[in-house]
Design goal:
The chain is mainly α and about 450 residues long. It contains 25 helices and no strands. The protein has helices spanning about 5, 10-20, 25-30, 35-45, 50-60, 65-70, 75-95, 95-110, 115-130, 135-145, 155-170, 175-190, 200-215, 220-235, 240-255, 260-270, 280-295, 300-315, 320-335, 340-355, 360-375, 380-395, 400-415, 420-430, 440-450. Helix 9 (about 115-130) runs antiparallel to helix 10 (about 135-145), helix 11 (about 155-170) runs antiparallel to helix 12 (about 175-190) and helix 13 (about 200-215) runs antiparallel to helix 14 (about 220-235).
């Protein structure tokens, strides 16, 4: 018997009737001023589904809990299930993602033990654990199924969490278009509810800003960030406000406003420093450190301190990609400090973390390792690394991220005096950013002559 059968009106009615007759009660004995005997008859025959209030009233007269009437399980079993679900959610909050995933899987293997609300919580927890373990392709089907769940009410906290997670997962899988569609549809749904701009808007909007930036749509990202900041200040908690300032900082970075970007992310870190989401705080420290390294007067020593702290946390609660991004920043910090051996070690660690699948971050790590070889005078190894990075980067679809990596690669080739390779990389960067090549008049005239 699955969960849907166990809580069907017929099953609930049968349990009420069996308990009533076992106790020697008549339908009239269960009746009250609010519940007629005829209505109880309809419930027992499965023709009416009792509301929570009615079920609670009947449970009181039958000497059991409402949950027992819903599921047929004894109160001890139900309480044990609640404790297991609470344990799984606590493990997830503490960063024990593997343990949480196993606990959610055990609960979902016996759905009859879960009421509709508990089942929803378990499935959301399972999807969250999968995403945090970087098993995004496994998380997406769970999230897609949740969006079709009729018990997931639009505008609810759970609905918002699912919408945000699904948009974020598609973005991390590289499907920026679908990520933006999901985010924009979620915002439109919130607007259609006739509510003022709420914290839910902030959560969805913060994710959408990140997707706009990855598509290179800086203007939309900037406009949305400016819309969300006053809302977050008025309605959001410290973590929500921090998320908005964090994304606003990334927008400022995309607009090449580095001092403003650093100021905004520093403010975000101050707001989120005491947040219990250790993973988010560590990721934000990585961002602040990277901005420190990009500043007009960089502070690699402070960046290194932030990154070592973030790296320790991410090694416990972060995904492989998040750890690799921290390692890449550690390459830059150590390179600026002239610590080339340490920088090379971080580059190799980043490549190891990214070895399970094609990630554009691996190109960045490879280019940095190649440049370290060149700085050491190891020319052959350095040039081989740059050529390998070039070949690897050609396999990625055009995007804002790939444009950045092509630009970085072009800069390194240029510093080596390799004009041809640098120009090719710059050309690829322009194409990846969506800027088409201009036509060659000589080719046009030649084609006309041939015709």
């Amino acid at each position: 018997m699955d969960q849907a059968e166990g809580t069907s009106p017929v099953e609930v009615g049968r349990r009420i009737r069996n308990l009533r007759t076992k106790l020697g009660l008549k339908q009239q004995d269960l009746a009250s001023t609010d519940i007629s005997a005829s209505y109880i008859s309809l419930i027992e025959s499965g023709k009416r589904a009792p509301s929570d209030a009615v079920l609670t009233a009947l449970a009181g007269k039958l000497g059991c809990s409402p949950d027992h009437l819903r599921s047929g399980l004894d109160d001890h079993t139900l309480e044990d299930t609640r404790l297991k679900l609470a344990f799984a959610e606590m493990a997830l909050r503490n960063g024990d993602n593997g343990e949480a995933l196993q606990a959610f899987g055990e609960l979902l293997a016996k759905p009859v033990l879960l009421d509709a609300r508990m089942l929803l919580r378990a499935r959301i927890g399972q999807a969250t654990a999968l995403e945090k373990l970087d098993r995004i392709e496994a998380a997406v089907p769970v999230l897609e199924e949740l969006t079709r769940n009729p018990s997931l009410a639009a505008g609810s906290d759970e609905w918002c969490r699912v919408s945000v997670a699904l948009s974020r997962c598609y973005r991390n899988m590289g499907d920026i278009t679908l990520s933006i569609e999901i985010g924009e549809r979620a915002l439109a749904t919130l607007d259609s509810l006739g509510l003022d701009v709420t914290v839910d808007h902030v959560q969805v909007g913060a994710t959408l800003i990140g997707s706009y930036l990855m598509r290179g749509d800086v203007t939309r990202a900037h406009l949305l960030a400016q819309k969300l900041i006053p809302v977050a200040e008025e309605h959001g908690g410290r973590a929500g406000r921090g998320a908005v300032y964090w994304n606003a900082g990334l927008v400022a970075l995309s607009r090449r406003q580095l001092p403003e970007a650093l100021a905004l992310t520093e403010r975000a870190l101050a707001m989120m420093a005491d947040d219990d989401n250790l993973r988010h705080v560590a990721m934000l420290k990585t961002t602040v450190a990277w901005l420190e390294l990009q500043s007009e007067v960089p502070d690699p020593a402070r960046a290194l301190e932030l990154l070592e702290d973030a790296g320790g946390t991410l090694s416990e609660v972060g995904t492989a990609v998040e750890q690799a991004r921290c390692e890449i920043c550690l390459i830059d910090a150590n390179t600026q400090l002239g610590r080339w051996d340490e920088a090379a070690a971080h580059a190799r660690r980043a490549l190891g973390l990214l070895s399970s699948g094609p990630r554009v971050e691996a190109v960045g790590a490879r280019v940095r390792l190649a440049e370290i070889h060149l700085l050491r005078g190891e020319t052959d190894e350095g040039l081989q690394g740059l050529h390998a990075a070039t070949r690897q980067l050609r396999h990625f679809a055009p995007s804002y991220e790939t444009a950045q990596e092509w630009r970085h690669l072009g800069d390194v080739w240029k510093r080596q005096g390799r004009t041809k390779e640098a120009l090719d990389a710059y050309d690829q960067a322009l194409q990846a950013s969506g800027m088409p090549m201009t036509y060659d008049p000589a080719q046009v005239l030649a084609k006309q002559h041939q015709d």
